[in-house]
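User: Predict Peptidyl-prolyl cis-trans isomerase's structure from this.
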Amino acid sequence: MVRSVTGCIALLLMVFVALPLYADTAPLVRLSTGMGEIDVELYPDEAPVTVENFLAYVDSGFYDMTIFHRVVKGFVIQGGGFELSLHMKETRDPIKNEASNGLSNLAMTLAMARTPEPDSATSQFFINLVDNPALDYSATNPGYAVFGKVVKGQDVVEAVAALDIVSLGQFTHLPDPPVIIKKASRIESKPEPDPTDPKDPGEKSSDSSGCFMDVLSFTP
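Assistant:
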């Protein structure tokens, strides 16, 4: 009996040792900006096409030295398409809109920007500053595809959102000073939870922020 119990304990220990510190193997990406690091966890099960597309841009270095070109307080920060010179980078082909994946545009989630055409997303993404249910998929709204969430650096996101805004030509929501994504790269381990995370990811807000279908288009 003792030998049997001892064997079971040993087996359990082997199982726990074999498991990674974090059971999920979701890809993690770090956006290293001039204001600090933003770590995002991606959701390949719910948004396989979108995650594959985003990681292709990350792995190719596409996002390096791009900027957050749109900051709308109480709504989103958007980037991933323009250089500091405000030159738009050449992108890969557009992808399928996966907004019907059941994920909501909650505060600190990561989603794809697009034109009014649903299947038009390429490289640009945005981070929701608040819960934005008006951006979710419905029977009458193609929605914006959520494919990840900020897991560390929420304070950096909020700092970007708090910057002054200037208008330059067609760019009406440029942060001042500019916020450069110096490098986007995969990271291996999940960071510790950020104590500055403004809210529980499951908490819903009634604020729709007055969103419109074309607010998150490629053009500012």
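DSSP finds three helices and ten strands in the chain.
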